[in-house]
Amino acid sequence: MALDKTTLINSLRDAFSSRFPAHTCDLGTKQYNQMNDLAQKMADAIDVYLTGAEIIYAGGLIAPSGGGAVTGPGSTTTIGNLK
Hints:
Number of strands: 2
Largest sheet: 2 strands, antiparallel
Oligomer: single chain
Helix content: 40-55%
Strand order of the largest sheet: 1-2
């Protein structure tokens, strides 16, 4: 699943706004832009962190000896970890 950065940015901005509700109605352009910039930078950092994750596969899927699609009982029984 690809990261939806627009939704992430909006969620971060909403979280900031809900944390400081008294100030959100009176935010000037500079403060609003700073809040958006912070949300963008956090989304970028999260994107880099998540896309840089290494999947350590331990087992649970079957690769046919003659080639073809990898099969298995489903993602709930595939064994692995993120590093």
